Amino acid sequence: MKAHRNKHLLTAIRLFTLMVFCGLASSAEAVTLPAIIGPHMVLQRNAEVTIWGWGKTGEEITVTGSWDNQPVKTKADNQARWEVKLKTSAAAGPHTLTVKGYNTLVLEDVLLGEVWLCSGQSNMEWSASAGIDNAAQHVAEANFPAIRFFQVAHRTADTPQLDLPGQWVVCTPKTMKDFSAVGYFFGREIHQKMKVPVGLINSSWGGTPAETWLSSQAISASPVLAQAAAARKEVPWGPVQPGKAYHAMIAPLTSFRLAGALWYQGESNTDAPEVYAQLLPALIQNWRTQWKQDFPFYFVQIAPFNYGSPEERVRLGEAQLKTLQVPNTGMAVINDLGNPDDIHPRNKLDVGKRLAAWALNKTYGQKDVLFSGPLYNGQMKVEGNKIRLFFDHADQGLVIKGKELTHFEIAGEDKNFVPATAKISGSTIVVSANGVKKPVAVRLAWSNTAVPNLYNKAGHPASSFRTDSWTR
User: What is the overall mean pLDDT for the chain?
Assistant: First the structure.
C-alpha cells in the first residue's frame, strides 16, 4: 500500500514538473532582439534585410512586417540564435514589425529608407553640442521625423560581440544636438533630395587609430599592418589595439543591412601615412566581407592642420587619395574648410553635403549632382620649360578663388621645389617658374597647412597632390 502511494506521489510530482515547465515555456519572454532592431528604426528599403535574435532552442519564431504582411518562420538553433530574411518595399511607413515566439514583440514606428553607418574618430563624433558653425540655428531646425539616429556607446572587446547598447531615436533638436554633425548633415541632404527616410548609425570614437576599427584577424593577416599596430603606444583617451573597437562597436552591426558607410578618420594615423595607404583599403575590404555586401564607402580627406612633422597631413591625404582606386569609394575634399590651429573644423555642414554629393550621384544615380573637385589624374606633359597637368572632374572648367592660383611648386632634376606660376588652360593647368628650365615634377599644396584656391565650377576644391614619388 505504501509503495502504491509512493508511486502515485512520484507520478504527481512528474506531472506537476511537466506542467511547470510547459507553463514557463509558454509564458516566459523567450524571444529577444539585439538593440539595433527596435522601435523607430529604419530598415533598408527595396532590399533583403536580416532580422535576428535569440530564443529557446527549438522555439518557433514568426516574423511579420506590416508592409507586406507576409509571415516568415524559423526556429531557434542549438545556440539559441535565430534569423530570418525579409523583403522590404519602397513604402516608407510607418510600419510595425511583429516577432512572435512563446512571447510576442511588436516594434512600432518602423520606417523603410536608406541606412548609413557613420564611423571614425572625433571629427565624425563631433556634435552641435561640441561646437559647430551656426549651431543654434541648425539645432532649432532639426525637426525631421523621417530621420532616425542610433548612437553606439564606446565599448571595447577582445572578441566579436553579439550585441551592443543603444536605441533608435527620432531626429529632434534634443536628439540631433548630441549626434554626429557630419552624419546628420549628410542624412538631411539625402532625406531632402531623395524624399525618403534615413537611418544613421554613429559608431565613432575620438582619437582612435584605424587599426582598432578592423577585426584583429584582418590586421594579423598583413605583416605590414601587424607590425605597425604592434608599434602603437597606449593613449589615455581610447583604444589603439587591433580589433578593440571593431569587436564591440562594429561586429554586432554586421547583420544589419546598410545602404553604405561614411568614414572620417586619419588624424591619429598621420605618424605612418605609408601604412595608411594599405590600412584604409584593408578596412573597407574587412567591413564589406563581414557584411557580405560591397556597399559604397565614402570618406573625408583630413583638413589642413599644424601637425608635428612638416608633411604628415599631406602624406596621409595622399594615402586617402590613392584609396579612390578601391571600387565604389569616394572622397570629400575639405582642405578649404580647415583651421591650422584647430584639428576639429567647425564647418561640418559642408563636410556632410560633400559626402552626400558622392552618394546622390554614385549611389542614387542623380547624375546632375557634381560630387568631386578637380583630381590630378596622373597625366602630365612637359612643354619646354612648362608642365601641363590633367585633371578628372574638370570637364566644365576650372575656377580660381582669388586673383591667381596659389600653392603650386615646380622642380627640375635637382628635386628642388620652388614657387611656381600656374595658369588655367581649359580643363588643364600649365605650371612654370623662371629658374626652372627643364621641369620634371609639380606639387600642389604640399604641406600641412596649405590651402589651395583651385576649384571646379561645381564649387568643389582640388585635392593636394604631387606628380613625383621622391622621399625628400
Answer: 93
Cell numbers 542624412 correspond to what residue? 187
Write out the three cell numbers for 13.
Answer: 510530482
Give the closest residue to 432 by CA, choosing from 445, 442, 424, 444: 442
Angle CA 434–435–437, to nearest 5:
90
C-alpha cell at 172: 529632434
Please state the three-class secondary structure of the chain as a single string.
CHHHHHHHHHHHHHHHHHHHHHHHHHHCCCCECCCCCCCCCEEECCCEEEEEEECCCCCEEEEEECCCCCCEEEECCCCCEEEEEEECCCCCCCEEEEEECCCEEEEEEEEEEEEEEEEECHHHHCEHHHHCCCHHHHHHCCCEEEEEEEECCCCCCCCCCCCCCCCEEEECHHHHCCCEHHHHHHHHHHHHHHCCCEEEEEEECCCCCHHHHCCHHHHHCCHHHHHHHHCCCCECCECCCCCHHHHHHHHHHCCCCCCEEEEECCHHHCCCHHHHHHHHHHHHHHHHHHHCCCCCEEEEECCCCCCCCCCHHHHHHHHHHHHHHCCCEEEEECCCCCECCECCCCCHHHHHHHHHHHHHHHHCCCCCCCCCCCEEEEEEEEECCEEEEEEECCCCCEEECCCCCCCEEEECCCCCCEECEEEEECCEEEEECCCCCCCCEEEECCCCCCCCCEEECCCCECCCEECCCCCC
Residue 415 corresponds to which cell in the numbers above?
628635386
| All cell numbers assigned to 371 | 560630387
pLDDT per residue as tens digits for the range 205-249: 999 999 999 999 999 999 999 999 999 999 999 999 999 999 999
Q: How confident is the model over 124-141, as pLDDT tens digits?
A: 999 999 999 999 999 999
Q: Measured between alpha carbons, how far is 121 from 124 in angstroms, rounded to an integer?
A: 6
**pTM beyond 0.70, yes or no:** yes
Contact (CB, 8 A) for 387 and 381:
yes
For the chain, what is the largest distance between any 2 Cα atoms, rounded to a whole number of angstroms? 121
User: Which residues, in sequence order, are CB contacts of 36 under 8 Å at separation 6+?
Assistant: 150, 164, 166, 201, 252, 253, 256
The pLDDT of residue 18 is above 50: no
